[in-house]
Write a structure and sequence with these properties.
Structural class: mainly alpha
Number of helices: 16
Low-confidence stretches: none
Shape: globular
Radius of gyration: 18 Å
Mean pLDDT: 93
Number of strands: 0
Strand content: under 5%
Helix content: 55-70%
Order of helices and strands: HHHHHHHHHHHHHHHH
Largest sheet: none
Length: about 270
Amino acid sequence: MNESILKKIKALPPLDDTVIQIQRIHADENSSINDLTKVVEKDPMLTANILRSANSPLYGFSQEITTIARAISLFGMATIRGFALSSTIKKSFSINLEPYGITAQDFLNISIIQNALMYNWYSKIKPKSLEILAPASFMLEVGKIVLAHELIENKQEAGFREKIQNIASPIDLALLETEILDMTNEEVTAKIFEQWNLETELSNSILYSNAPEEAPDHIKEFARALKVVKTAVNIFNQLDDISIKNTMPILDEYGFGHDTFLMAVAKVKDNL
């Protein structure tokens, strides 16, 4: 693996106190929504982000959400944890994704769309799995921030950006990342999660999302769902005809029904 990238990961600041407290509450079976509400309310930026998202049509809640307690009740602890980790990314990284041909705002938008799609899809078929899939879908692209920094530092961004014009899928992109940087976005993201002492189910779900068949049995479902979502929403395409067409064979391969997924796609796409 690329030692320079590993050093960058080890130099990351630790998770902030809000996220650590949310992690602790999430792991405690005896904790309550009230416990989580008290922690979130102490972080004005996170509170504003959650309320803004709760009132976004992407998530499809029928009434205006005015309190953080109500938002937490609707989203569930796992999705709130995803929002908190996403907030940490904004604080911990200087986001410059020029080598990938996208802006920082593009990156944040893609993360939100990936999470909204996962939430609308899996809340209808297996809500319990959102314990892992909600935060994981927020964080699918995080490793690209570190990889882009490495490319810029080594003056490789122009060559990388030129090569990226000739590919159009997350799998091909992972091959390019390996060719030039010896690490993929998924490998870097998993290492970031290890650095932050997040559970292995979360890191491995992303690590194996390019090749779910190689995942341990208890990770396969998560990796498969993430592969579906990132095929439908990625830096090249976001829920357009091309990405949805590419997603259909993957749904079939893993035994996911089309109807529920396409309903989730329609809900998110109609509100982009």
